[in-house]
Amino acid sequence: MAKGYSVFSILKHALWPETVWPEAWRKAEPKPNYDIIIIGGGGHGLATAYYLAKNHGVKNIAVLEKSYIGSGNVGRNTTIIRSNYMLGANTAFFEKSMQMWEGLSQELGFNLMVSHRGQMVIGVSPGQMDGLARRGNTMRLNGIDAELFDRKEVEKELPYLDFSKEARFPIWGGLLQPRAGTVRHDAVAWGYARAASALGVDIIENCEVTGILKSGNRVTGVQTSRGKILSDKIGIAVAGHSSHVARMAGLKLPVESHLLQAFVTEPVKPMVHHVVSWGAELFYLSQSDKGGMVFGGHIDGFNNYTQRGQFTKVKEIMECAVTLIPFMARLRLLRHWAGIQDMTPDGSPFICTTPVDGLYLNGGWCYQGFKATPASGLTFAHTIAMNEAHELNKGYELDRLMNGAALDEHGTGLRDYRQ
Amino acid sequence: MRIPCPYCGERDLGEFTYGGDASKARPAHGSKGAKTWGDYVFVFENPKGPHVEYWQHTLGCRQWFKLKRDTSTNEILGMEQ
After folding, report:
1. Residues facing A352 on adjacent strands
2. Which residues on A lie below 8 Å from B58 (Cβ)?
3. Is A303 an interface residue toward B (CB < 8 Å)?
């Protein structure tokens, strides 16, 4: 196993390419029982296992992944990190995540290519500018960076947007969070997998959970495609498939699975220096280090587990791209793909205990899970180890909707519930 | 995906509006209990497999109808009454 990466190891492998890089994490075989099983080897599952081992001293942990590490949503998102949230529990939670990103490459010993390029949310009406000012003020009162820009200032920073007289949605200004940016998403999965494995966590790939074993109201283990594995604490971190896995334990969730598509164009010279989000429709774009424009929009709009997007939505998102950034009309699309999202009625996640003893849930991410990965792992590990919520995820209980404590964050959430 | 409208025939998804789970039954008028109503409003069956759902042919005949679709493949399994 790789001890650590250094300039010397890179030089060695560059000069003698025939030397094989050691594998980054152990290919573990399932043991008959574990202290804690995490279902789902995505960013959140791996981060949870890492913080369980590091902060809570749990040694006997398994992460069960149905495919290979990086095959799910951790490798399907648009890699954006930000903490411009306004409501209750969300503000502190996502800001903690942002602060954790800042030192994570050093902590994991793996270059996550964290880029604080800033995120500019474009406002297209005076009403929207009032909303952005209010959001920015809330952020600043919570110690988060935010700067309000007027039209002229936006034009200076992002001259390629449509500032013409004919623009369908005239730009009034924007709200910049300078510390927001992007992170290389595969590296997050690999970095956490490597660090967790080094602390003794068994990462078991190609091991699909097919049933959850219970004795009375207490979990006792899981049935998998590679046999029965016992544990009296099980964490579900399979966002996209949360309903599917929770049903194995007899639970129904306030979650519906929807598709979100993402797109990348052919690479061009550096041009877009920020993450750009648009107020007229849900649309967000950044330029990758390779030069491709990486962008996405809203969910397809009907519940779905196919991981295959619909053309109707492709067209709508292209219309958004060209309306906001006219030069996009001259770029060719290289690839597009879809990921499955847990959509909750209020647009906020769940990190919580469940009515089943020993079963814990991390899900309902509503396509904002990637940026939350470090804080999600930290708080979910705490919830599992201590059997109660961490200070930061107290608002993410499963019964919050029933109790009138919904976290109704603007711009996300389940559409048919809202209509 | 193409959806078979019972009046207009098979048309593109873009002409339709999704209306959600059609198997969900509203609790009887006057039903008591916060959980009964909470589950009706907030909890979703969300199956990975056959799902009976409402669609409206918004840009066509505007008829609402029930469709059975496999959510893991998008295969249309038939119309429901």
Report:
1. A361
2. none
3. yes
- DSSP state letters, chain B: -EEEETTTEEEEGGG-EEEEESSPPPPPTT---HHHHHHHHH-----SSEEEEEEE-TTTT--EEEEEEETTT--EEEEE-
- pLDDT of the residue at A86: 87
Q: Which residues of B touch A402 (CB under 8 A)?
A: 34-35, 38, 42
ipTM, two decimals, is: 0.94
**CA–CA gap between residue B73 and residue A39 (Å, rounded):** 24
Domains of chain B: 2-25+36-80 (3.30.2270.10)
Query: What digits encode the pLDDT tens for the residues A59-117?
Result: 899 999 999 999 999 999 999 999 999 888 899 999 999 999 999 999 999 999 999 99
pLDDT range class, residue A409, cuts 50, 70, 90: confident
pLDDT digits (tens, 9 = 90+) for A76-87: 999 999 999 988
**Which chain B residue has the Cα nearest residue A344?**
B42
Question: With an 8 Å Cβ cutoff, is B81 touching chain A?
Answer: no
**Nearest CA-CA distance, residue A26 and chain B, Å:** 32
Quick check: pTM over 0.90?
yes
| pLDDT tens string B34-64 | 899 999 999 999 999 999 999 999 999 999 9
